[in-house]
Amino acid sequence: MYLDPPNPPFNHRESSGSTLQGDYGSPISSLSRRNSLTGVPDNAGLSTADSSVSLTVNYLPTKFSNPQLNQLAQRKRRPHHRSAKHADDLSPGAGVMPKMGGGVDAFRSGEARMNGEDEDEDGDNERVEDGSRSRWTKKPAKRSKPRWNRFKWTLFIANLFLTIYSFIGLIGCLLTWFNVWSKADIIRVANNAELTTSTVAAAIGIFTCLLGWAGILLNNRSFLAVYCLLTWITFLFLLIPGYLSYKRRAFNLEGKVNAQWSQDLGAEGRLRIQNELACCGYFSPFVEATISQTCYARSMLPGCKLKFLDFERQALKYFYSVAFGLVPLQLFVMIAGLLCSNHVTYRFGKGMMPKAYRLSMTSMAIIMDNYASQLAEQYGENVAAEILTRSRSDLQLSAMPKMPYAPPVPAKAAPSQVYTTTRYDAVHTKPPGPGYI
């Protein structure tokens, strides 16, 4: 004899025999109704601060439906034109697969919360159903074109700017260190601090942008979190050469150049500047000059003070102009990273089930108790016991804690009449199981 499948406890039933509808749409199972008759507190199966019962027992989203619970449900929808020919396709478990939802539409009113196909819109259509690695959908023959959201495009543009000026800055600094530019040796001697900090800032910028590319292309939010931190460090190192060069140029540059020539450069440093600027001595060949083939007592070359001072003004202005000119772009990179790094895909958080909603063995026992009550109500106690035994063997639930259940009291029965047939141990009298996470 063919038996219609029972309604699960988390589906709304048309009849009022087992499940009632609360004020806010949360189902009140037959367990609560029996507790009111037996004197057991109504919150025996509810999750509290001292309870190990999952909140999934009390609130189950609409992602669960008969076709998904029925083992005979097909994974593909029926074509629309075949629905008229097969009237029985609309029956539970006959191949009507509801929309799984998730992704961009996950926060609409009444939307299912189950991750759907390509829920983060990154072009990857493979989804894993459970630990057995079975997939919700088959891999399409032709891979769809990846889709980037606006936050990912913003990160892409911001990191592209960071990449461009970091590489340009590092290349310029390296060419200066290798003495490729004209008069680059003067900067290596007289502006070593500014050149060193600029090189370090460019190197940190390159490392930051490479980490950013890894996070953007791999949709890795951990990389992007570190990327946001490194953009601030890059910003600090970008301000250092600008501050040093501006402070040196704006406040008594002539006095600083005089002290540098007489105290800091030394004979070798003065010789390198004399060769680059074609001068001899500071004021004349007789004042703090380093003897060379072109600089001697009767040399006709002028002193180096004027040429050196003009060169320093121009070089220092170039340093702080470039450094401070990159500040708006670096601020854009930092703000874009802070606002968009956590939205590189539409997936909320890490995609993990909250701890309060994770199923434990105790929670599964409550669900099985509700299921057993409905089976006993519809088909009788013997059929319910047989179905539960088969379900336990198929689902490998032999280690699950057992609970008492009793068929609901008939409408005309006295309130004190309660069935005493028990098949499980009471949940509220057992300590939390070791399987609770």
Structure report:
With 437 residues, the chain is mainly α. Among the domains are: 150-343, no CATH class; 359-437, no CATH class. 45% of the residues lie in helices and 1% in strands. It has helices at 30-38, 66-69, 150-177, 184-190, 192-218, 221-250, 253-264, 266-277, 305-325, 327-340, 361-379, 381-395; strands spanning 20-21, 27-28. It has a two-stranded antiparallel sheet with strand order 1-2. α7 packs across α9 (305-325). The longest helix is centred in the middle third of the chain and has 30 residues, at 221-250. It is rod-shaped. The chain starts with 19 loop residues before the first strand and ends in a 42-residue tail after the last helix. The model is unreliable at 9-47, 59-102, 127-137 and 413-428 (pLDDT under 50).
Order of helices and strands: EEHHHHHHHHHHHH
Number of helices, counting only DSSP H or I runs of 4 residues or more: 12
Gross geometry: rod-shaped
Strand order of the largest sheet: 1-2
Overall pLDDT: 71
Please estimate the helix content.
Answer: 40-55%
What's the total count of β strands?
2
Radius of gyration computed on alpha carbons: 38 Å
Keywords: Membrane, Transmembrane, Transmembrane helix
Region (Disordered): 1-50, 66-141
Membrane topology: Multi-pass membrane protein
Subcellular location: Membrane
Brief descriptors of the model:
Tetraspanin/Peripherin; single chain; mainly alpha; membrane; two-stranded antiparallel sheet; 2 strands; 437 residues; transmembrane; 12 helices; 45% helix; transmembrane helix
